[in-house]
Write a structure and sequence with these properties.
Layout: H1 2-15, H2 20-34, E1 46-48, E2 53-54, H3 62-69, E3 72-77, E4 95-97, E5 100-101, H4 102-117, E6 123-127, H5 132-139, E7 153-155, E8 159-160, E9 180-181, H6 188-194, H7 197-203, E10 208-213, H8 223-231, E11 236-242, E12 252-256, E13 262-265, H9 275-278, E14 286-295, H10 296-305, E15 315-320, E16 330-335, E17 349-352, H11 364-371, E18 375-377, E19 383-385, E20 393-395, H12 403-409, E21 416-427, E22 436-445, E23 454-456, E24 472-473, H13 475-484, E25 491-495, E26 508-509, E27 519-520, E28 524-527, E29 540-548, E30 562-566, E31 578-581, E32 592-595, E33 605-606, E34 617-619, H14 627-635, E35 640-644, E36 648-654, E37 658-659, E38 670-671, H15 674-684, E39 688-695, H16 699-709, E40 715-719, H17 729-734, E41 739-744, E42 746-747, E43 751-758, E44 764-770, H18 774-792, E45 803-807, E46 811-812, E47 818-827, E48 833-837, H19 846-851, E49 854-858, E50 864-865, E51 870-875
Parallel strand pairs: 2-17, 3-6, 3-10, 6-7, 11-17, 20-21, 21-22, 22-23, 24-41, 29-30, 36-39, 36-40, 37-38, 40-44, 42-47, 45-48
Antiparallel strand pairs: 1-12, 4-5, 8-9, 10-14, 11-14, 12-13, 15-16, 18-19, 25-35, 26-34, 27-33, 28-30, 28-31, 29-32, 41-43, 43-44, 45-51, 46-50, 47-48, 47-49, 49-51
Helix pairs in contact: 1-2, 2-6, 3-8, 13-18, 15-18
The structure holds adenosine monophosphate and magnesium ion (MG).
Adenosine monophosphate binds next to helix 15.
């Protein structure tokens, strides 16, 4: 089946005019994909990189530098589309700093280097078929950039995206260009050959190329690295930087035990269950900056020898055919990474460079810092920090994630960040002019941030410019922050009976008419209406020409004066246009039938397409599958329906005192009740769920379990270990790991942890760290986790509806926190709801929790309610 896929792909590539090397490389990878290649590098096959040369200790004379630069070209990987930032065109066309785009800055950096060293230093872009035109238009501003005998760009190869089952090239008639993708930046070596640029460079006496991403503003063509490479006759040099906690997700170099060669292990190449080693920044203490230097002669030799197939490790990427539409069908993209070529060349080296050579803009958070006054461009157009010390940490809310949203919210420029250590924005405020961030800034709310505001350390007496700064979040703020991080659950085609309760991913159209054919809605006789004119006054006798039952196809037709016996659901014979009910006849089975009433044409006939016409939408995307939806889908012949699948929830309890139910209790021990409770709550919310069991109060053990679980879970719920105790394991292990521990103004459930856990391949798994007391855990689930699961499943409304109920006894509440009490709610004789708070309102009362059927909600500004007052209640059980 998939050989067919290969043939079809190759055919398409030929039609598109792609070179034979490109096709050979595609074939090579296709076979690997078929053979189930994962392209992983297991930890026990490698050793950490060990000591390497630091750029700071390389000493190069001006002469050596000039000599090396005179034989070097700058090649920028410029195929990026910035989809992650919501862009559709070339990412490098984005304005990053002082009104200049990435490409402007790159061009100006190259021109400055040429002038400083008196060298030719060609600049060539590797564009994709999507980025070329736009990028060259920007470079037109710099006519002096062009170098004789060389193009300003070459176009990266393209390959078909493949359907996961069958590996056929995907079809996407809505936008056929989306059927194609570039084969990753590892394709640069092939494209250099197929475009003729490699030969052209060597022809001009250019022997080295510096390859880097165009969105990395730190990747300038450093003469010292060039000279070092030339001096040592190195075929290939990769720049690495010292790894910090925040680089744990980036690829790193290591030494392959088998042959001593340096290899690159990217996120996608981590073997299952080995996340931990990959993220260990002490063991693998540098990361790959994707700035690469290649000896072009060695490259040409290699490419000729291998007929264009360097054999870089395969990367199998799963994406949606339309990257901007997560509900479009899934595809496989076969890719390879530029940096993995390090293993191909004998004698490759790594060099340790300062962080300043790795300054990528991957998110609008990065963009904010780069645009701000924390950085400036020097006379060589290098990005330099205006202030010493670490870069400010920026975390903007989802509304700012796309460039369009970002620009709208900073219409007068970004804030001053020189004195800022961190800026977090929850909510959606628009920023005014001339704003300054000082120290740690948390903006939480929706109000506009006024012009000239100073955020963070406020001058005495100043009025805070935004709604609720501070470290305690309201319930609504916390929920909003959670919901903002969630992606819809992936869609999947499912058999009808498994889709109950799930949300349909896209409109389903009928491929048939309902009814499929004209048929009878009554048992009786199919006739021509005209044959029965006047039958009400004088009965008419018709000749019976045949009989048709449901499931039969009549082979005769009905003429004037004729009738055919017909059953409900049977096709109307040709010639007939109405049915007379058997009750209005003498019911004869053969011969002649006496008819005692007239009928109009169409009487008791269900015409074809009356219910559904073929091609019309029968079930809209977004609707929830219920019994009636299933009936309709089945009637239209669909055996499956594409829905957002159930998120898989893994429940973990923490605490050294916990013992599984059924086990005997030792001194100080209690049974784990949260696991079963949270499992059931997740299942009742529509998720699929699994109990992982109890983890003691050991951070190592918890991290190991989470590493494992992050490979398969869509959501992780932990309970316990989040408050202020000495053994609060969850907080200890996960603080600073992308999980935020906050205080929420509610009771119970004040300590809450939430964030995205990073699993293998960079998958982001929402993690809820709920407090351990059973009642707190339960309330937290209802208030935060259930809405989140519903959001992921695309179910609305996300929150359960509150209803008014009359209290039959008074309650006290903390001021300033929203209280969720437990109550038994019933209906009064008048039909209104009454709420009886349960006796045990402490967070450890499991029996009273189980007795209750509702939570009652006391607002933040209320401290006391008396009997007879009305409270909002949230009914926990399905209503009868
Ligand atoms: P912690 O937040 O870990 O300090 O736990 C708070 C309280 O909840 C302690 O009394 C724990 O023993 C109890 N607790 C924690 N986890 C569970 C669980 N899974 N089942 C029952 N009780 C628990
Ligand atoms: Mg505990």
């Amino acid at each position: 089946m998939s050989d067919q896929g290969l043939r079809a792909s190759v055919e398409l590539m030929r039609e598109r005019g792609l070179g034979s090397e490109a096709i050979r490389v595609f074939e090579h990878y296709f076979h690997q994909l078929q053979a189930g290649a994962l392209g992983t590098i297991p930890e026990d096959s490698i050793e950490p990189l060990g000591d390497i040369q630091a750029l700071g200790e390389v000493h190069v004379s001006d002469e050596e530098a000039r000599a090396a630069l005179s034989k070097t070209a700058v090649i920028k990987l410029n195929g990026g589309l910035g989809t992650g930032m919501g862009m559709t065109g070339a990412k490098s066309a984005l304005e990053v700093k002082d009104g200049l785009t990435f490409l402007d800055i790159i061009a100006l950096q190259v021109l400055a280097l040429r002038e400083r060293w008196g060298v030719e230093l060609p600049l060539v872009l590797m564009n994709s078929f999507r980025t070329s035109e736009e990028s060259l238009a920007i470079l037109e501003k710099y006519p002096e950039l062009a170098v004789e005998g060389l193009p300003l760009d070459f176009i990266q190869n393209a390959e078909p995206k493949l359907c996961p089952d069958g590996l056929m090239p995907v079809r996407w008639p809505q936008d056929p260009e989306l059927e194609w993708c570039p084969p990753g930046h590892g394709d640069i070596y092939v494209s250099l050959v197929t475009s003729g640029v490699l030969d052209a460079l060597l022809e001009k006496g250019i022997h080295y190329a510096f390859l880097s991403n165009s969105d990395n503003l730190g990747a300038t063509c450093d003469p010292d690295v060039a000279a070092w490479m030339v001096e040592h006759g190195l075929p290939y040099v990769a720049e690495v930087c010292t790894r910090t906690k925040s680089d744990r997700k980036g690829g790193h170099l290591a030494v392959r035990k088998a042959d001593g060669r340096i290899v690159l292990r990217d996120t996608a190449m981590v073997a299952e269950g080995e996340e931990r080693f990959f993220r260990d920044i002490k063991r693998h203490n540098t990361f790959n900056a994707n700035n690469v230097w290649v000896d072009l002669e060695v490259l040409r030799e290699r490419m000729t020898q291998k007929e264009g197939v360097l054999g870089l490790p395969i990367i199998v990427n799963h994406k949606n055919v339309d990257p901007a539409d997560p509900s479009s069908p899934e595809v496989i993209q076969i890719e390879s990474a530029m940096g993995t070529a390090i293993e191909v060349f004998e004698g490759s080296e790594a060099i340790l460079v300062p962080r300043t050579r790795f300054r990528p803009v991957k998110t609008t958070n990065d963009l904010l810092v780069i645009r701000s006054d924390f950085f400036s461009l020097d006379e060589s157009y290098h990005v330099v920090a205006a202030v010493e010390g670490p870069e400010p940490f920026v975390d903007l809310d989802s509304a700012y994630r796309f460039v369009s949203g970002f620009e709208k919210r900073f219409p007068r420029g970004v804030p001053s960040m020189r004195d800022c250590t961190s800026l977090r924005v929850i909510g959606d405020p628009v920023f005014g002019r001339n704003i300054r961030c000082v120290g740690d800034v948390l903006i939480d709310g929706y109000r506009r941030v006024l012009d000239d505001a100073v955020l963070g350390e406020l001058p005495p007496g100043a009025v805070p410019p935004v709604s609720v700064p501070g470290e305690v979040r309201t319930v609504d703020e916390h929920l909003r922050a959670i919901l903002a991080t969630l992606e819809p659950a992936p869609t999947q085609r499912m058999p009808l009976t498994e889709a109950l309760g799930l949300v349909v991913a896209r409109d389903v159209r009928a491929e048939v008419n309902l009814p499929h054919f004209d048929n009878a809605s009554m048992d009786g006789y199919a006739v021509r209406a005209e044959s029965l004119a006047g039958a009400a006054e004088v009965p008419v006798r018709l000749h019976i020409v045949g009989e048709v039952a449901a499931g039969q196809q009549p082979t005769f037709s009905v003429g004037p004066g004729e009738a055919a016996r017909i059953m409900t659901g049977a096709p109307i014979p040709d010639g007939a246009d109405a049915v007379i009910a058997v009750e209005d006849t003498d019911g004869a089975a053969s011969g002649e039938v006496e008819c005692r009433t007239a009928v109009r044409a169409g009487r008791y006939v269900r015409p074809r397409g009356e219910d559904v016409t073929s091609g019309s939408v029968v079930v809209g995307g977004g609707s929830v599958v219920g019994a009636r939806t299933l009936a309709l889908l089945a009637a239209c012949g669909h055996a499956e329906v594409e829905v957002h699948r159930r998120p898989h929830v893994v429940v973990i309890s923490t605490g050294a005192e916990l013992v599984a139910p059924g086990e005997p209790l030792g001194p100080g021990q209690i049974h784990d009740s949260n696991s079963s409770m949270l499992w059931a709550a997740a299942v009742s919310a529509g998720a699929s769920a699994e109990v992982r069991g109890v983890v003691g109060d050991s951070e190592e053990e918890l991290i190991a379990v989470l590493d494992e679980v992050a490979a398969s879970a869509d959501v992780v719920i932990t309970s316990g270990g989040v408050s202020m105790g000495a053994y609060d394991v969850v907080k200890g292990a996960l603080s600073g790991e992308g999980i935020d521990f906050v205080k929420v103004a509610m009771q119970p459930g004040k300590p809450q942890g939430y964030g995205l856990l990073t699993g293998p391949g960079g998958r982001q798994v929402p993690l809820f760290a709920l407090p351990g007391n059973p009642v707190s855990s339960f309330v937290s689930f209802e208030v935060f986790v259930r809405p989140a699961l519903r959001r992921m499943m695309r179910l609305t409304p996300e929150k359960r509806r509150l209803r008014p109920a009359t209290l039959i006894s008074g309650v006290d509440s903390f001021g300033g926190r929203r209280q969720f009490g437990r109550a038994v709610v019933s209906r009064s004789a008048e039909g209104t709801l009454v709420a009886a708070p349960v006796a045990g309102q402490g967070s450890h009362f499991v029996a009273d929790l189980s007795r209750a059927n509702a939570l009652f909600v006391v607002p933040e500004d209320v401290t006391e309610l008396v009997a007879g007052e009305v409270v909002d209640v949230l009914l926990l059980d399905p209503e009868a």
